[in-house]
Amino acid sequence: xxxxxxxxxxxxxxxxxxxxxxxxxxxxxxxxxxxxxxxxxxxxxxxxxxxxxxxxxxxxxxxxxxxxxxxxxxxxxxxxxxxxxxxxxxxxxxxxxxxxxxxxxxxxxxxxxxxxxxxxxxxxxxxxxxxxxxxxxxxxxxxxxxxxxxxxxxxxxxxxxxxxxxxxxxxxxxxxxxxxxxxxxxxxxxxxxxxxxxxxxxxxxxxxxxxxxxxxxxxxxxxxxxxxxxxxxxxxxxxxxxxxxxxxxxxxxxxxxxxxxxxxxxxxxxxxxxxxxxxxxxxxxxxxxxxxxxxxxxxxxxxxxxxxxxxxxxxxxxxxxxx
Length: 323
Description:
Its main location: cytoplasm. The protein is an alpha/beta fold. The protein is built from 8 helices and 14 strands.
């Protein structure tokens, strides 16, 4: 099968915005190629983490790659994307999006898979968790290290985005054995898998995008034979009525805000709500929405211009310093 690959070079703060719009334009897969994913990868006692950067493979700015059916009208897609960015820039004049480069190329699926594997390497995400591509042989030196194996297919990047890292850090902090967990916008299933490997008794993973459901299920199958992680097609928590200990959501801030009251209804008293995917200009808005819905903010983490918030159901706001 052949595909049209649309390559877009943008600033790091724009990669999620451009990625989201490519999905809306009908992309069958989106990935992000960012040199920062593989710079200064740590080896902190759990075994060598591979992934030395090949300078020839990476540009100065992140690359967003969208994949479309070979019969797609790529000129029309480029026009729609440029029009959307122009409209965005008219509203966001303080931080406009620059499209440094755009180009398209026709490729075969096998060629794409080979290109992907060139830069998708094991990554130590937190003190205890590593993300490992299924085709890599990796043996941690410590049994304490949790390995999450992913076969991202054409739907996802490396899993090393700062928003994912922040959520994994929070999961390590809040998870207790036998917790019940909901993951909203599960995507590749990485957070659902992490929660289960950190001791969750049951995980319900909700995903709105039908096209990635099977990817999540396959990644879960790779990591565990358990039936205690359910992947369910659903929009946010619409129609969901559960009482769980932890809810995680690594999605766009515009979706997080309406999710907050739904999360409140599905959490036990003092239950933890973990939110990521929050760009710096949306932090205050999300904080206020949490306070308005009787959450207390426990901690805020930052990586570059991305933020994550850990809150608990109940009053008495006592936010800790951002790390």
